[in-house]
Amino acid sequence: MESIVAAVSAHARDAGERAAILFEGQTVTYGQLWRDAQRFAQGLRAWGLVPGDRVALFLENCPEFAVAYLGIHLAGGIVVLVNTQYRQVELSHILTDAGVSACVTGHDGAAELAPLPLPDLRAIILVGDAAAPGPFTILTLAGLTERDGDDLPLPEADAPAVIGYTSGTTGRAKGALLLHRNLLANARAVTTAWHWTDADRLLLTLPLFHAHGLMVGLHGTLLLGASAVLRRKFDAADVLTTLKDDLAITQFFGVPTMYARLVTEAERHGAPTRCLRLFVSGSAPLSAHLFTEFERLFGERILERYGMTETIMNLTNPFDGERRPGTVGGPFPGQEARVVDAASRQPLGADEIGEIEVRGPNVFAGYWRRPDATAEAFTADGWFKTGDLGSRSADGYFSITGRARELIISGGYNIYPREVEDVLAAHPAVAEVAVLGAPDDDLGEQVVAVIVPKSGQAITKDEAVAWCREHLASYKKPRRVIFAETLPRNALGKVQKHLLTERL
To answer: Model confidence over 278-322: pLDDT tens digits?
Structure first.
């Protein structure tokens, strides 16, 4: 087996009536999923797609996403994942940079694309609507999946599979090119580490355009022939009700923002009386306070892991053993990780903070059409420089301190925003917090804390500073405290600090 596509083909042959995706009262079996993916692939080939062409998925969560994703791969195409929150500036950059020839989307997505000058985009493949504005050829997913033809060969392991664009917090987003073998190696590592089996059923509310939802949630499900209850988006009340009522669900994957909202919902309406096999958190740091609150209400310890677009999954707390709050555990099976000095690139000892590097079969092939950026991202012996700062304990648990570019140097002292955020997040009146650096004539940089107070509670600047002084060295306390109603976040709940910096 050389791809996730091959796994779906095998499940369709051996257990075609097994449920793959459950969505809004609809059950999609492995047999149906494979037939639709084959027909879609044949439709793409009949339209004119040739192996290596890029096809964008600009689509919300639905079974058609999985059909299109598998079908593009079966036709030899490369999937370009597009955040559904993106608008014209981001869309223009990504679709032009990737040289996308077709885009699978809905009516609203087509309307967003219509005014853009996209020289390579020849067709929009619509899901759900028969007509859309714009100068492009309009095809329909339903029409393409009605086609039949000779069986197409399964993708080869070294064939390009996905281009996922980085968040682009500095400069333009870069496309990370992942091969089919990268996707398969990662899915095997994740399912092994988390004791995933074909009997598991995942409640999947994460967006499929993101690695967490697609390359962890859906890939793991499809690799093993398991099933997923798919939602269009996360809704705390719906998730809590589903966890209480659907006894077949064994797993839930989320981001810290989701878990915070589940805690709030459970405090109002009660937590489930049964325990799931596994709760996983990633894509943003999980505070020790939230970890403890969730365990108190739900009776389960969240398993926190660490990954990124270029590598999918890197580190995980153990399934069996201590799930240590504030850490992301150790490498997945078959992978390596280390902490190095950012200047010398030499490995550091236990508890020393440096840049995290990773190596393994999950690591991407390089940045799309960016050989300079690719060369800069790797060491001579193949370690990928993550750009994340962290440390490794003597017993092998990694902790993420923050992005290297977010390090605050104030009065000659290094200050890691995560450390200050964790302290402020534990204050009973603080709902959310982000810490960043701002220029300071005297100190070089000063610590700025942006705080969202809990509803109905108040905290003053002096109280926030005093709280930090009580728990941290004095030089780490915020010099400036700003109160806000919300923090800017991306679709996965990660705070967009570059936007906060721009506002300041």
So the answer is: 999 998 788 888 999 999 999 999 999 999 999 999 999 999 999
Whole-number Å distance between alpha carbons of 500 and 488 = 7
Q: Residue with structure tokens 């659907």?
A: 246
Continuous H helices in 318-408: 371-377
Nearest to 486 by CA among 472, 469, 499, 470: 499
**C-alpha pair distances (Å), 369 with each of 97, 116, 170, 373, 468:** 8, 22, 18, 9, 45
For residue 366, how many other CB atoms are within 10 A of its CB?
Answer: 19
State how beta strands 123-126 and 78-81 pair: unpaired
Q: In DSSP terms, which residues pair with 201 in a beta bridge?
A: 227
Which residues touch 182 (CB under 8 Å, ≥6 apart)? 161, 312, 361, 362, 363, 364, 365
**Tokens 């990660």, located at residue:** 494
Q: Tokens 């080939």, residue?
A: 45
Separation of alpha carbons 44 and 54, rounded Å = 12
Residue 223 near residue 346 (C-beta atoms within 8 A):
no
Residues 65 and 59: beta-carbon distance below 8 Å: yes
Q: How far apart are the first and last CA of the chain?
A: 52
Coil/strand/helix, residue 306: strand
DSSP code of residue 156 = P
Q: How far is CA 442 from the centre of its chain?
A: 39
Contact by Cβ (8 Å): 300, 294: yes
State phi, psi for 494 to the nearest 5 degrees: -80, 130
Instruction: Give residue-wise pLDDT tens across range 154-210.
Output: 999 999 999 999 864 445 789 999 999 999 999 999 999 999 999 999 999 999 999
